[in-house]
């Protein structure tokens, strides 16, 4: 039995367990992002995965300021320069590698990470 705490994302209602398969790596746009939605209503869990510079990073799709999804259109998570993640509601900018807000109303706060890994060519949670 592990003494490690559960990942924070599991505190969200409807969060899928470790091992949940998301998609094949080739289904993610190169240097892009893709959203995933699980459940509905109060058990809805919204997340996204970023494939950037050969690294996978994933976050709960929830702005820490307004608790709205970041993407203003499906799978649109970047600013125009693709240098940061962008909250389409209030324009907050987040670093891609660690989810830290560097500009906007939630400056200094972070997106909630979701651990992901590759199992062969499949992106999985955990």
What are the salient characteristics of this protein?
126 residues; mainly beta; Rieske Iron-sulfur Protein; 3-stranded antiparallel beta sheet; 9 strands; 0% helix; globular
Summarize the structure.
The protein has 126 residues and is mainly β. It contains no helices and 9 strands.
What does this structure look like?
The structure is a single chain. With 126 residues, the protein is mainly beta. The protein has one domain (8-125): Rieske Iron-sulfur Protein, CATH 2.102.10. The protein has no helices and nine strands. The chain has strands at residues 21-24, 32-38, 45-52, 55-60, 85-86, 93-94, 101-103, 116-119, 122-125. The strands form three sheets. A three-stranded antiparallel β-sheet has the order 1-9-8, with no helix packed on it. β2 (32-38) and β3 form a beta hairpin. It is globular, with a radius of gyration of 14 Å. It starts with 20 loop residues before the first strand and ends with a strand. 26% of the residues are buried.
Task: Spell out the blueprint of helices and strands.
Blueprint: E1 21-24, E2 32-38, E3 45-52, E4 55-60, E5 85-86, E6 93-94, E7 101-103, E8 116-119, E9 122-125
Antiparallel strand pairs: 1-9, 2-3, 3-4, 5-6, 6-7, 8-9
């Amino acid at each position: 039995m592990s003494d490690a705490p559960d990942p924070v994302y599991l505190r969200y209602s409807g969060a899928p367990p470790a091992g949940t398969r998301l998609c094949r790596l080739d289904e993610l746009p190169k240097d892009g992002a893709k959203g995933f939605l699980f459940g509905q209503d109060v058990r809805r869990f919204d997340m996204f995965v970023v494939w950037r510079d050969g690294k996978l990073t994933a976050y709960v799709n929830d702005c820490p300021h307004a608790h709205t999804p970041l993407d203003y259109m499906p799978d649109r998570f970047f600013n125009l320069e693709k240098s940061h993640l962008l909250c389409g509601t209030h324009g907050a900018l987040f670093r891609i590698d660690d989810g830290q807000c560097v500009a906007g109303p939630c400056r200094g706060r972070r997106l909630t990470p979701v651990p992901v890994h590759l199992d062969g060519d499949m992106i999985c949670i955990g």
